[in-house]
Design brief:
The complex is a heterodimer of chains A (116) and B (112). With 116 residues, chain A is an all-beta fold. In chain A, 0% of the residues lie in helices and 51% in strands. In chain A, strand 4 and strand 5 form a beta hairpin. The radius of gyration of chain A is 13 Å and the shape is globular. Chain B is an all-beta fold and 112 residues long. In chain B, 0% of the residues lie in helices and 50% in strands. Chain B has no helices and 12 strands. In chain B, a hairpin with a 2-residue loop joins strand 7 and strand 8. Classes of the chains: A mainly beta (116), B mainly beta (112). The interface between A and B is medium-sized, with 28 and 25 residues.
């Protein structure tokens, strides 16, 4: 079975451009989480989505960041007008229909965004 | 709010050495506790977990015991191997949405 697939693995953007990160959950999974890892820090929760619904976005910055998980296709994390402070590794995780079993999530390899 | 504190790294050990990685937490309610591992070039994967006080999680020779009295979940292995070289994250989860709160992670390097 394919695991959680993220792309691109590496993305370079100039300040002011847009970044789009994609995540395809594991087969049979309908819950998606996005986490951000800044240099020298642990992973920080950003947003939790189910198909067509945002369940919890308490970790998302108020401006420039948005996420979606459409009925068809991957989940998208979109960052508009990127700044250097957005440079980080962005990890997607998924869990099965019915929610995580005792909190276990399945993670992708991450997308590393560099803002010049 | 919830938080997880891990010991500072990196850690370098010789093969067959004993490993302890400290983890303490602060949480409201009764969290589930996890250790995730990230091997080079891969995503995080669950190593072990414990869902209530005094539970012991174990996998691949690693163990951790949920200590409510000391709010700790230290990771141990009796004899490390080169293949254990990775980044180790301690994490907790509370609430219905199963959001994970992670520590900063610690890099373990094992020399042959």
């Amino acid at each position: 079975n394919a695991g959680v697939m993220q792309n691109p693995r590496h993305l370079v953007r100039r300040r002011g451009q847009e970044a789009r990160l994609r995540c395809s959950p594991m087969k049979g999974h309908s819950h998606v989480y996005w986490y951000r890892q800044l240099p020298e820090e642990g992973l920080k929760f950003m947003v939790y989505l189910q198909k067509e619904n945002i369940i919890d976005e308490s970790g998302m910055p108020k401006e420039r960041f948005s996420a979606e998980f459409p009925k068809e296709g991957p989940s998208i994390l979109r960052i508009q007008q990127v700044v250097r402070g957005d440079s980080a590794a962005y990890f997607c995780a998924s869990s099965p229909v019915g929610g995580p079993v005792a909190g276990e999530l399945f993670f992708g390899e991450g997308s590393r965004l560099t803002v010049l | 709010g919830d938080s997880v504190t891990q010991m500072e790294g990196p850690v370098t050990l010789s093969e067959e050495a004993f490993l302890t990685i400290n983890c303490t937490y602060t949480a409201t309610g009764y969290p589930s506790l996890f250790w995730y591992v990230q091997y080079p070039g891969e995503g995080l994967q669950l190593l072990l977990k414990a869902t209530k006080a005094d539970d012991k999680g174990s996998n691949k020779g690693f163990e951790a015991t949920y200590r409510k009295e000391t709010t700790s979940f230290h990771l141990e292995k009796g004899s490390v191997q080169v293949s254990d070289s990775a980044v180790y994250f301690c994490a907790l989860s509370t609430g219905a949405n199963s959001k994970l709160t992670f520590g900063k992670g610690i890099t373990l390097s094992v020399r042959p």
